[in-house]
Amino acid sequence: MSELRWNPLYGEWTVTATHRQDRTFFPPPGYCPLCPTQPEGFPTEVAAADYDIVVFQNKFPSLQPAPPAPAIEPSELYPVRPAQGVCEVVVYTPEHNSSLARQPVEQIYKLMQVWQDRFADLDKLDFVEYVFIFENKGEAVGVTLPHPHGQIYAYPFVPPRMERKVKQCRRHKAKTSENLIASILADERKDSRRIVAENESFTALIPFFARYPYELHVYPNHHAEALTDFSLKELRDLAAIFKQILTAFDKLFDVSFPYIMSMFNRPSDGADYDSFDFHIEFYPPMRTETKLKFLAGSEAGAGMFINDTLPEEKAAELRKLIVPVL
Amino acid sequence: MTRAKFIKRLLIKIQMETQEKSIETKVGAMHKRREKMGDGERCIIFYTFGDEKKMEKANEVKENV
Fold this sequence. Notes:
The structure holds two protein chains of two kinds. By secondary structure, chain A is of the alpha+beta class.
């Protein structure tokens, strides 16, 4: 059973997807569904091995292009709609024991092109209003398949956090005639203490308002609303800054650093998003070498994050670990 | 989409096709091959870059779906 149920308390949709309870959970060695199928081996999701990157529709999708009718009747209080959308899995490499951080910058550049292509394709679908590209990495954020991969959800509505961001961007532009991300970037550049890495096209920083100790944002140096606005040179620069920051993350505590990576493109509903700029946010759950930040009472209940660290200090830690990428 | 936005996107597209020849030479052009998965319902896209053999195979079967 799968459907969208309206939450009148928060004014947002929840997806019920009961079939996902049966999804693959830490398969035994040799049975990874994201590895290429081996001759006479068990059939995985990826039947061939002649690829650099592979993308397929999720076997356990929360949203489907042709969803079943909702299994429950709607009411005035509780509107219900089919869970229409697309859920894709992006396998970054055929190598099982690896990570995005350990890929050469050229492979990350290939991934940027694949992400751009997927965004372009999904952005065109009539029933899609928002294309969300993300990666959950590490057991600490609930990953059950360690093979390096990310996901793409194409939603039939603009999700609530994105809606809030768009509203803030529009408000800021109306007030200052400047784009919000451009203002943040200018301010961060002037201060410079929270900047972690930069190149000709992108800047990586821990923002003034970071909610997690190592929350890292990547902003374009010039206005762009979506991945499809970037040239190949800019995608190469994005790959280079990814390589730098992911390597620095891994060096921080000498572990394969867990994180949630969220990519924010403009919505796909055809409205005007001139005041919005493409950006990426990383939310790593580690606050020290041995401690995780949990979303507890204030964060989960009140939506008020408490950061036990100073972004200026954490940015300095990461900056020291940045090495040039050729 | 406004006319200005359309022209901007067109210019970016042209720029994408013409610039950064050195990067392109190293990684090569992107090719995609779309196939049905084992369950006969879902789709899978194999992305390859540059290699001519992979490219030929990609071109042969890219209209499978």
